Amino acid sequence: MNAARLAGQVRIVGTGLLGTSIGLALRHLGVDVILANRSPAALRLAIDYGAGREAAPGDDPALVIVAVAPDSTADLVAAELDAHPGALVTDVASIKGSILADLTARGADVARYLGSHPMAGRERGGAMAARADIFLGRPWVITPHALTTPAQERLIEALALDLGSTPIRLSPDEHDRAVALVSHVPQIVASLLAARLLGGSAAVPALAGQGLRDTTRIAGSDPELWMQILGANAAPVTEVLRAFRDDLDGVVAALEDPAAPGAPTRLAAMLTRGNQGVARIPGKHGSDARYETLVVQVADAPGELARLLTEIGEEGVNMEDLRLEHSPGAQIGFAEIAVVPEAAGRLAEALEARGWELARGGQTQGSTS
């Protein structure tokens, strides 16, 4: 067990997915974690999971982390600032500007508040979905404001590094504009596309391949939580959606008469810009390297996937990414293994020699998200 960079007690208010995950990770490092939740049952569950302990007389946390829904964040941050005058208080909500504005308007001691946001999560919420490794390799945004001190920034940076994240500094407004594009609008697009599956022939969903699954994966997220997030970040989200709508209108116009002069060019430009945009998404270790994909057929039987991964390791090849796709109605699946191009041919020959059936894929962006 590695030593934590954080010193002193850490209090976590909110034992949902993020709060419990932070607690699990910090407890693994030996940090004294104090948990609080308005629901006694949710608190007991997180404690039973090993994410921390109940508050006790004499507790004196150096850091308080508020991990609750966005519409409750400012209230609880203000309460924790009052209750713990020697602590720095942060929160992990996915919006930052409106929380700081709310705290400032009510006269809270924002000199001891520094918002942050780990860019990590899952489609399922609650303590039962928590994982200590959920933050590994993910960005953790720190949003300093006019009263923030360097020591406070270093404390939140230590938290992020302890949890395996990469600290990134943005102003609250810069953060909100950024997450509108990379997180909030994708949720809307995924939900709208998934909603098109409702009604109509039952055969349509049966045709779904990995492309639809990838595009709609986050559509299973909690509607109540996302209503709060979108409402709190409405202006930046609206700005992105307007530009998206204009682009979409251009595609619709081109497809209404695809043979018209200029229509093929507009469609090609749209697809090319998409290629250029996805190439900017960082992949493993923050790089934008491109990998070659091997598609391996895997029997839907216990131990088969584990055997494949073990044999890849035995060949001395580092797997950069892995994606699984099941074949509807068949007892097989497909494992898409991304490796560096110079290892692809050697690995393909080795796997075929070991009896695996595979087909070469094309290049793929080095992304694990």
Automatic annotation (TrEMBL):
Transmembrane segments: none annotated. Pfam families: PDH_C (PF20463), PDH_N (PF02153). PROSITE patterns: ACT, PDH_ADH. Pathway: Amino-acid biosynthesis; L-tyrosine biosynthesis; (4-hydroxyphenyl)pyruvate from prephenate (NAD(+) route): step 1/1. It is an enzyme of class 1 (oxidoreductase). GO terms for molecular function: NAD+ binding; prephenate dehydrogenase (NAD+) activity; prephenate dehydrogenase (NADP+) activity. Residues 8-289 form the Prephenate/arogenate dehydrogenase domain. It catalyses: prephenate + NAD(+) = 3-(4-hydroxyphenyl)pyruvate + CO2 + NADH. Keywords: Amino-acid biosynthesis, Aromatic amino acid biosynthesis, NAD, Oxidoreductase, Tyrosine biosynthesis. GO terms for biological process: tyrosine biosynthetic process. Residues 293-369 form the ACT domain. Its EC number is 1.3.1.12. InterPro entries: 6-PGluconate_DH-like_C_sf, ACT-like_dom_sf, ACT_dom, NAD(P)-bd_dom_sf, PDH_C, PDH_N, Preph/Arog_dehydrog, Prephen_DH. PANTHER family: PREPHENATE DEHYDROGENASE, PREPHENATE DEHYDROGENASE [NADP(+)]. Belongs to the prephenate/arogenate dehydrogenase family. This is Prephenate dehydrogenase. It comes from Pseudolysinimonas yzui.
